[in-house]
Design a protein that fits this description.
By secondary structure, chain A is mainly alpha-helical. Chain A has one domain. Chain A contains five helices and two strands; from the N terminus they run αβαβααα. A two-stranded parallel ribbon of chain A has the order 1-2. In chain A, helix 2 links the parallel strand 1 and strand 2. Chain A is globular, with a radius of gyration of 14 Å. The relative contact order of chain B is 0.15. In chain B, helix 4 packs across helix 5 and helix 7 crosses helix 8. Chain B has a domain of 150 residues: Peroxisomal Thiolase, Chain A, domain 1, CATH 3.40.47. Chain B is α/β, with parallel strands linked by helices. The longest helix of chain B is centred in the middle third of the chain and has 25 residues. A six-stranded mixed sheet of chain B has the order 2-1-9-8-6-7, with helices on both faces. In chain B, strands 10, 11, 12, 13 and 14 form a five-stranded mixed sheet that branches. Classes of the chains: A mainly alpha, B alpha/beta. Chains A and B meet through helix 2 and helix 4 of A and helix 10 and helix 13 of B.
Chain lengths: 107, 482
C-alpha cells in the first residue's frame, strides 16, 4: 500500500476516530488485497509508510464481499464492480478478509 | 494491403549487482540506515551464474518459450536451469565486468574514471565479446590511481563503481549546481545508453543488415536526458545509433511511461507505411532507477534480490518482405482521454474496440501479450501478479461477450496468456517481450496471430489522473509459405 493512501487513511482515523470507520478495499489480486487490509488493521508490514507501527484495527471489507454488495444499489454495483466480480477470486478474497476481521476481534 | 512487418527482435539483460545500491529505492533506504541496509542488500545479491540459470531470464533472451515456465516449479529462483547459456536466440545476458567496459565505451565526456588495476581486466572481458572485440577498446585505457578516485568521491560527489564489492572506478557529475547533471542522473542515462546499444547491436546481427541501412532510430527508454533548462527534453536515439555505426540514421525519443515502447512501434509502423523511412529501429535501454525496486519484499522473504538486471529491447520495422509477420494497421487500440479509467473501460478500449473494427472475436486471437512483469519479483512485495490480473480481465470480457463460460477463464488464461518473465523495467515489460517469440511462433505455424496490449500510469508524473494504453495485432504474412 503506497504511502499516499496510508496518509489518507491515517488522517481520516485522526479526524473522525476509528469507531465508525470501515475500510473497503478493491484490489482484485488476493495477495495485494491482503497486504492492503493488514496495513490498515495492524500497521505497515514494510515499516516504510505513515502506518508503520500504527495498529488502527479498522474493520476491513472487500468490495466483492456480500456485506458490501448488499449495501450498494444493484445498478451502481453492477456498473462499478460487476467486471471485477468476474475477474477476481471472490471466494479466496472473502476467506482472507474473514480471517483478518477475526484477528481484530480475537487478538 | 502492403503492411509493415516485424523483421527482427532482440532482447538483452545486463547483470549489474554492483549497481543495485544505486536503484532509487535502495538509495533512499541506504541513506536512512546504511549500516543495516547495505549489508543485507549485499548478502542477497545473485552471482552471474545464478542470473543466467534463472528460468525467466532464459525466456527473455529466447532460449525457452514463455509457456515452458508453466512446467517449471516455483519459486523459479530455486529451480535453476542446468547448462543455461548466457547467449540466446534474441540476445544475451551480459556480466558486470563487460557492462563496466561498455559504459566506458559509451562515455564521451570523461564522466567515468576506471581504476588503474582494473582496466586490463575490464578491457580483456570486452575484447573476448563477439560483438565488441572489434570496437575501439583503447577508449577503456588510461586508468586512474585509486587515491585520485577516492579524492573525487570524498570531495566532489563522484559515485564509486563497484564490482564484486571492490571499487573499480567512479562516475563524476558534470556541473556543480545542475541537479540534472549529478553523477547519479548521468549514471542512469549512461546505463540506458549502454544497454540500448547492446540491444541494437544484437538486432543488427540478428537481422543480418548493415548498420548503415537503418534510416531512423526511435528510442523508447524512460530516462530524462537533458540539463537544467530541458530536463527530460533530450534523447538517446542518436547516441545509441552512433555507437552501433548507424551513420545514415537520424532519430529521436518517444516517451510515454510504460507504453513508450508501443507508441514508438506504432510510429514506426506508420512511418514505414508512409514511405518516409524504410528501415526503422525501435530501441529501448534499461532503467537503473528500478534496480532493487522491490528489494524489501525480497529481503523479508529471504530470497535473492531479483531486480539486479537492466533490460534492453530492439525491433526492426520494415516494409513487407513477404515472410515476416505483418502488423494489421486497422488493429491499433488506444485509450482515449474520454474513455474512462475503470479497468473495464480501459480493456474495452484496448482489446474490444480494435477487435470489433476488424470483425474478430476475443477468441480469434491466439496469444495475448500484456504487461509481462515477472510475478516472482512483484508478488513477494505485495504488488500482485500483473500479467495474470490482465489476462483474467481479457477472459472476463470474453465471458461478458458470451464467447466463453465463466468457468473457462482459467483455461483461457493458460492457453492465450503466459506467465510474466520480464524484468520490472517500465517500458520493457510492456507486452513487447513476447514480440520475438510471437514472430517465431507465427513463422513456425504454431499460432496465426498475437495481440500486444500495454498500459501506462500517466498519474506518476502528478500532472493528470489519467491512465494510458495502446495495442496492436500482428498476423501471419499472407506471402508466408506453410
Amino acid at each position: 500500500m503506497d504511502t499516499e493512501k496510508q496518509t489518507i487513511i491515517k488522517n481520516l482515523a485522526n479526524e473522525m476516530g476509528t469507531e465508525d470507520l470501515v475500510v473497503v478495499i478493491g484490489a482484485a489480486d488476493p495477495e495485494v488485497a491482503q497486504v492492503t487490509a493488514e496495513t490498515v488493521t495492524f500497521g505497515d508490514p514494510s515499516f516504510a509508510g505513515p502506518l508503520a507501527g500504527v495498529s488502527l484495527r479498522l474493520p476491513v471489507y472487500h468490495i466483492l464481499e456480500p456485506e458490501v454488495k448488499e449495501a450498494i444499489p444493484p445498478e451502481v454495483y453492477a456498473k462499478q464492480a460487476g467486471f471485477m466480480e468476474l475477474v477476481a477470486d471472490a471466494e479466496e478474497i472473502g476467506k482472507i478478509f474473514r480471517e483478518i476481521r477475526d484477528k481484530i476481534e480475537n487478538p | 494491403m502492403q503492411a509493415p512487418v516485424i523483421k527482427a527482435c532482440s532482447y538483452i539483460l545486463t547483470h549489474v549487482p554492483g549497481f543495485v545500491r544505486y536503484g532509487s529505492k535502495p538509495t533512499r533506504e541506504i541513506n536512512d540506515d546504511a549500516a543495516s541496509v547495505l549489508p543485507s542488500i549485499e548478502t542477497h545479491l545473485r552471482s552471474f551464474e545464478d542470473a543466467v540459470e534463472y528460468p525467466p531470464n532464459q525466456v527473455f533472451i529466447g532460449n525457452l518459450t514463455p509457456d515452458r515456465l508453466n512446467d517449471i516449479e516455483q519459486p523459479w529462483h530455486r529451480h535453476p536451469l542446468q547448462d543455461a547459456s548466457r547467449y540466446g536466440k534474441y540476445g544475451e545476458i551480459m556480466p558486470e565486468e563487460e557492462v563496466l567496459g561498455l559504459l566506458k565505451l559509451a562515455d564521451d565526456f570523461d564522466l567515468i574514471w576506471l581504476e588503474k588495476e582494473s582496466v586490463q581486466m575490464l578491457k580483456s572481458a570486452l575484447a573476448a565479446h563477439p560483438l565488441w572485440k572489434d570496437a575501439d577498446l583503447e577508449k577503456i585505457d588510461g586508468g586512474v590511481d585509486l587515491a585520485h578516485i577516492s579524492e573525487r568521491i570524498e570531495n566532489q560527489e563522484s559515485l564509486p563503481l563497484y564490482h564484486h564489492g571492490r571499487v573499480v572506478g567512479c562516475m563524476h557529475r558534470h556541473h556543480e549546481q545542475d541537479e540534472n547533471l549529478r553523477a547519479q542522473v548521468l549514471m542512469e542515462n549512461l546505463m540506458t545508453k549502454a544497454s540500448g546499444t547492446l540491444a541494437l547491436r544484437h538486432l543488427l546481427k540478428k537481422a543480418d543488415i548493415q548498420a548503415g541501412e537503418i534510416d531512423l532510430l526511435l528510442n523508447c527508454s524512460e530516462e530524462a536526458v537533458g540539463d537544467r533548462y530541458n530536463r527530460g527534453g533530450g534523447g538517446l536515439a542518436k547516441a545509441i545509433g552512433e555507437m552501433c555505426g548507424c551513420t545514415s540514421a537520424t532519430g529521436c525519443d518517444i516517451k510515454a511511461f510504460c507504453v513508450g515502447s508501443l507508441y514508438a512501434l506504432v510510429n514506426a509502423f506508420a512511418l514505414v507505411k508512409s514511405g518516409i523511412f524504410k528501415k526503422i529501429a525501435v530501441v529501448g535501454g534499461g532503467s537503473m532507477a528500478k534496480l532493487g525496486m522491490k528489494f524489501k519484499g525480497h529481503l523479508a522473504k529471504d530470497m535473492p534480490i531479483l531486480e539486479d538486471l537492466l533490460g534492453g529491447i530492439a525491433f526492426l520495422i520494415t516494409d513487407d518482405d513477404g515472410k515476416s509477420p505483418i502488423v494489421r494497421l486497422d488493429s491499433i487500440g488506444k485509450h482515449d482521454i474520454g474513455s474512462g479509467s475503470s479497468q473495464q473501460s480501459i480493456m474495452e478500449s484496448l482489446v474490444l474496440k480494435p477487435l470489433d473494427r476488424m470483425g474478430m472475436k476475443i477468441i480469434d486471437v491466439d496469444k495475448y501479450a500484456v504487461e509481462l512483469q515477472n510475478p516472482e519479483v512483484t508478488v513477494p512485495a505485495g504488488s500482485g501478479n500483473v500479467p495474470l490480473a490482465n489476462y483474467r480481465m481479457i477472459g472476463a470480457l470474453a465471458v461478458l461477450r458470451k464467447e466463453i463460460q465463466r468457468a473457462e477463464i482459467d483455461r483461457f488464461v493458460l492457453e492465450r496468456g503466459m506467465p510474466g518473465f520480464s524484468p520490472t523495467q517500465g517500458h520493457i515489460p510492456a507486452a513487447v517481450p513476447f514480440l520475438g517469440h510471437a514472430v517465431d511462433a507465427i513463422k513456425r505455424g504454431e499460432i496465426n496471430n498475437a495481440m500486444f496490449v500495454a498500459r501506462g500510469s500517466l498519474f506518476l508524473g502528478r500532472m493528470t489522473q489519467l491512465s494510458d494504453g495502446l495495442s496492436f495485432l500482428i498476423e501471419k504474412n499472407p506471402g508466408q509459405k506453410d
